[in-house]
Specification:
By secondary structure, this protein is an alpha+beta fold. It is 26% helix and 32% strand.
Length: 615
């Protein structure tokens, strides 16, 4: 090997049909970050076209978005990496999601990069998630190449928003590129800026192998397929590899790059991004953040990996068919390999049977995980109402953590309940400030700051209980501002609140699936609405079914599903009135006895209807 290769690292262009080695200074690793719907996936499409990575006959919109769910919703859910050739350089590009619920995908992507393309809509300007992603890039010491997208729109004001970006983020307005990802205008100049401004990776080819797994998915035929970034050394096909955190050894069956189809190569050198197939069937052995090294010459220590994300929203997932419990467990295990930001543990419900308590980063994340389980693993699931994690303070000062409302003990066993709060940042046109302040105050929010980013745009900062944010706050915010406001949030500690547990009882039996924790002022409204809703969807029985909402031992609302009744006096004609009374009394006793021994059988769709989030 030449001295140049020793100092600059080896690329595998020869494996892609070239004779020469590519030096490290010709490699660029970058991600595209932006607010949702600012054009990341469209920009990725244009970059693929310019670099000739996809045959024009096979090109389609959102090419890197491989899931049907992503195309239907028009959002990116999973990060996707691709290797491109551009003007004597190799570009490893990672397209990332834009919604705040998938911020963990963005953070994992940035660990495999040296720079980012920050995309801002030229007709909307900076949004809340734009700031969050930009600060995330700065924390990782990444070079930022900013661009204003959608300059072809009539409403675009690139000069105005370039000045706004300079004021808020400190990026000089003259350095912000103007592009249209839809038409391709300015995209080539953007790639030139990427090559010029983003620094090349560093690494030593002679050092022991250190490679970071930043994403994985499970293939039924080939096992775990991992996305890797090589930091030092070479990842060779056929070599014995050690997975340092898991402590297991596997042989590298196939190593390659995504162009964007998987293309095998003999090895990946330092600074390169690609994929690894090692025939792994146990999904726990190749988690995101795992460090790979050679078994014969291992690295001294593993790479830093990733911090475990902290779930914010919890709900129960139960199979409609109780026999599918094992299938649900296997599906969760395989999906968590591809999306490590949710957590799960088994739980048992008296009403729904065996299932899992699953923690998510947000409500959209919860909807996506459930839909992926149903589509990709052919499951039929029931999800309970979402809840958050509470802390109960006992009389002796100790704390217990509760994420399932049915686990809350009687009020006599604890002193107070602490609930989680979020620091919310809302960026909105100034004419919607009043309606947003009203929304935040109705959700028990406390204003912390209000800043005018420009005469037309305002940033509101509120501290709001998480339980008030996760259900429909985002939808309400969008509807009140005609879609112009944007939201970003982060945890802001715990505070004591006047919270109570509301139980729902059917025929005097508590149904744990409907149990919830709400603020004392809203408990009556919740209990009344849930009783009315259940009265509509519970089928009539042979006996009266009382539906009650209770706080502790005090009932706060009630509805009754009337029993089917047979006219037992229809066969009588004339005669003494005592004959009718005798038959009616006999019927009444039978109904009473039936109510004592009868059970209310709820159809599975009754739970789905009662727990619908949009209601």
């Amino acid at each position: 090997m030449s001295a140049t290769a020793h100092t600059t690292g080896v690329s595998l262009d020869a494996c892609y049909g070239r004779e020469r080695m590519t030096q490290l200074d010709r490699i660029r690793n970058l991600s595209i970050i932006a607010h949702i719907d600012h054009g990341k996936s469209t920009l990725a499409d244009r970059i693929l076209e310019i670099c000739g990575a996809v045959d024009p006959r096979e090109m389609r919109a959102q090419y890197l978005d491989s899931m049907d769910l992503e195309r239907e919703r028009g959002i990116t859910i999973k990060l996707q990496s691709v290797r491109l050739d551009y003007r004597d350089h190799v570009i490893h590009l990672i397209d990332t999601p834009g919604h705040v619920d998938f911020g963990y995908e963005v953070s994992r992507s940035l660990a495999a990069c040296e720079g980012v393309i920050l995309v801002v809509d030229a007709s909307q300007g900076i949004e809340a998630q734009t700031l969050a992603n930009c600060y995330l890039a700065l924390e990782n010491d990444l070079e930022i190449v900013a661009c204003l997208n959608k300059i072809d729109l009539p409403a675009a004001e690139p000069d105005l928003y370039a000045a706004e970006i300079e004021q808020i983020l400190g990026i000089p307005a003259d350095d912000i590129l103007r592009i249209s990802a839809k038409t391709g205008e300015g995209v080539a100049e953007l790639l030139d800026a990427v090559v010029e401004r983003i620094p090349p990776p560093v690494g030593e080819v002679d050092e022991p192998l250190q490679a970071l797994i930043f994403d994985s998915h499970f293939d039924s035929y080939r096992g775990v397929i991992s996305s890797v970034r090589v930091m030092n050394g070479q990842l060779r096909s056929g070599s014995k590899l050690k997975f340092m955190q898991a402590g297991v050894t596997h042989e590298a069956i196939e190593v390659g790059g995504r162009r964007p189809e998987n293309t095998p190569v003999p090895a990946l050198g330092p600074g390169e991004v690609g994929y690894l197939i090692a025939g792994i069937k146990d999904v726990g052995e190749a988690r995101s953040g795992e460090t790979i090294t050679e078994a014969a010459r291992p690295a001294a220590e593993p790479l830093d990996g990733y911090m475990e994300p902290k779930p914010m929203v919890f709900c129960g997932l139960y199979p409609v068919d109780g026999d599918a419990f094992d299938d649900l467990r296997d599906a969760l295990e395989k999906l968590r390999l591809n999306d490590s930001s949710f957590s799960y543990e088994p739980e048992v419900s008296g009403a729904l049977g065996f299932g899992f308590r699953v923690g998510y980063l947000g409500l959209l994340h919860m909807e996506i995980v459930r839909e992926r389980l149903e589509r990709e693993f052919d499951l039929n699931l029931i999800a309970t109402a979402p809840s958050v994690e509470y802390r109960l303070v006992k009389e002796d000062g100790s704390e217990i953590v509760i994420d399932n409302p049915s686990d809350v003990p009687p009020p006599s066993e604890y002193k107070q309940i602490l609930e989680p709060y979020f620091a919310c940042s809302i960026i909105t046109p100034s004419n919607y400030v009043g309606t947003l302040m009203d929304l935040c105050q109705s959700r028990r929010g406390e204003m912390k700051k209000m800043d005018y980013l420009s005469p037309e745009r305002v940033e509101l900062q509120y501290r709001i209980p998480l339980a008030e944010v996760v259900i429909d706050f985002f939808d309400q915010m969008k509807s009140r501002t005609q879609g112009y406001a944007s939201l970003d949030y982060e945890p802001a500690g715990y505070d004591a609140s006047q919270l109570v547990r509301v139980d729902i009882l059917l025929n005097s039996e508590q149904v744990d699936a409907f149990c919830t924790i709400v603020h004392k002022d809203k408990a009556y409204d919740y209990g009344k609405k849930m009783c009315e809703k259940l009265k509509e969807i519970i089928p009539r029985q042979q006996f009266d079914v009382p539906i009650q909402a209770a706080i502790g031992g005090r009932f706060i609302a009630r509805q009754t599903v009337k029993a089917y009744r047979k006219d037992v006096t229809a066969k009588l004609y004339g005669g003494d009135i005592t004959r009718k009374k005798k038959l009616l009394t006999k019927q009444k006793e039978g109904k009473k006895r039936m109510k004592n021994i009868g059970r209310v059988e709820l159809p599975s769709d009754a739970f789905i209807t009662a727990l619908r989030l949009d209601d």
